[in-house]
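Lecture 7, part 2: worked example. A protein chain together with adenosine monophosphate.
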Amino acid sequence: MSVLIVGSTALDSIKTPRRANPRLLGGSASHAAVAGSFFAPVKLVGIVGHDFPPRYIRLYQKHKIDLDGLQIVNGKTFHWSGEYEVNMNNRRTIETELGVFETFTPTLPASYQNSAFVLLANIAPSLQAHVLDQMRRPRFVVADTMDLWLNIALPDLLKLLKRVTGFVLNDSEARQLTQRNNLVAAIKKIHQLGPKYVIVKKGEHGSILSSPRGLFNCPAFPLPCVVDPTGAGDSFVGALMGYLSTARGPIDFNLRRAMIYGSAVASFCCEGFGLKSPRAFRGAISINASRNWKK
Ligand code: AMP
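Predicted complex, written out as structure tokens:
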């Protein structure tokens, strides 16, 4: 089974205390799609401008990502720039240039509309809802978000939450959304907003799943050196969805293992800047090795 992924397809300019790298391949959907592609075929929905480097299209193609839903239009690709503090956890957005995103209306090719697994990666909740409107009875829909949408599009996000099976957000967003400091209390409140499954990401401290089977604490893979954590959350949920779409049996039963895979793939993301082929291939090799070990 394939996974449909919609989200941002971006150029990222990233500054860390050690290095600055301009115009890397980024965006929530790009990170999630590459991560998901290690497990399952991925269908990408997004938009880029004519300035989008052809080598980035080739990288998607190397991962056999279906690009029928990627619009390439006149204008500038969404550009995000951010800077990390020395601890590599705190990040500040320097600039967001929407470019072609300003007029983006995601339109699903007919071949996408029957996808059973749908990841609404970080993007405006109204656009996430517009994608859902075009789907025919998906089996498992997960949405991701960011603080920006809690600040400027909360009513849209609350409407969306009633329509998704799973919701993924980070710990500060969970606290902001629910006004609860205690994470377990925050998770309880998020369930009341709609989603059956809630996953709270805690960066280097892993993630928590709350499902009808109870709570599950998933560790982050311990890394001796974090080069650039941009997109780690997207990689986590992309890999999780990729694994789930191919795993046999009930979702409830497979989710915990899916989170472990998500955690492993997210750690590859932190080891280098942007989405680069060599790193991605290294990730694929290791993931395959761990899958063989599982058998
Ligand atoms: P993460 O590190 O998981 O929070 O994801 C970082 C990715 O989110 C970067 O690759 C950015 O291009 C993307 N991003 C940043 N701001 C936005 C936004 N307003 N909408 C959608 N994607 C964004």
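DSSP finds ten helices and 13 strands in the chain. The longest helix spans residues 251-270. Keep this in mind for problem set question 3.
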